[in-house]
């Protein structure tokens, strides 16, 4: 059963084994040396791989509802609601209790508050997800702060205490984690900011795996700027090369991670917009150059695109086979129409849930390469770009 992936295998921390590997036998008179290396053997490895595969299952993707209380408050304010725990709970209950959601959604990223909440009739939100065969996840970073010595750039905090927090999240039912850091093209990006982003992601990933959580690795390249798509490709290749270097340095098991990259697009202020086919071509070029096929799933963020645009781009990337499961981890691109349909009114809950299923199904079809934008509403075609924040 799918719920088997939620069963804790062993609480012990990772161990190390001295397994040896030879890159060629030494012949008489040869100067070839035996090369050996250590292979990380975590008590959670099998479970991590199983969980990652479950999330990266055909036709499914991730619903991201891990907005901080402040960000969630902005969303509620857009429909005239106060930012209270009761209102946040009501909105997230609407999302997490949508009947049939598990047909299209394999994982849901929660904010810490939501992980510990229940429905108004007493069902834990994590149990609502499990009943739909959806894996509960948890945002574990502590947000962005200025990076001293950089070109007005940021770094992501939250490594202090992460191991103990992750262990508690596991006990509460979480089985994967998310850590978002950002890279700004107009700010350089500086070598310091890229290295800090990559190192922080790698340390987080290693700590998460050590505590039974599949890490989503997310160095978001912000849309800000008027640069062409070739510049985005150049920066993305640099960032992901650095990320995978440090993931390997930290002995992260690639089969037990998921990625959450930005799509390779022109800057939001660039005069020329790119077609879905162009975005797919550039994005897949970057991925094939930088991402090992051992990684099971690539779950794109929507990057401030409209609901329809994000889905069209994903569909274009799935027109031919990929080495990885290429899917979605969308927040606003799944929720925008839902919020506007709900308006905070109990009588609108069912209609709002149906609108969520419409968007989830559209992206499910895009993951399978079968999506058509025919019949999409004008509301779903509206862009959602916010400077400095493309999540």
UniProtKB/TrEMBL annotation:
InterPro entries: Aldolase_I_AS, Aldolase_TIM, FBA_I. Gene3D superfamilies: Aldolase class I. Keywords: Chloroplast, Glycolysis, Lyase, Plastid, Schiff base. GO terms for molecular function: fructose-bisphosphate aldolase activity. GO terms for cellular component: chloroplast; cytosol. It holds the Pfam family Glycolytic. SUPFAM superfamilies: Aldolase (SSF51569). It is found in: Plastid, Chloroplast. Its EC number is 4.1.2.13. Pathway: Carbohydrate degradation; glycolysis; D-glyceraldehyde 3-phosphate and glycerone phosphate from D-glucose: step 4/4. It catalyses: beta-D-fructose 1,6-bisphosphate = D-glyceraldehyde 3-phosphate + dihydroxyacetone phosphate. One of its GO terms (biological process) is fructose 1,6-bisphosphate metabolic process. Belongs to the class I fructose-bisphosphate aldolase family. NCBIfam families: FrucBisAld_I. This is Fructose-bisphosphate aldolase.
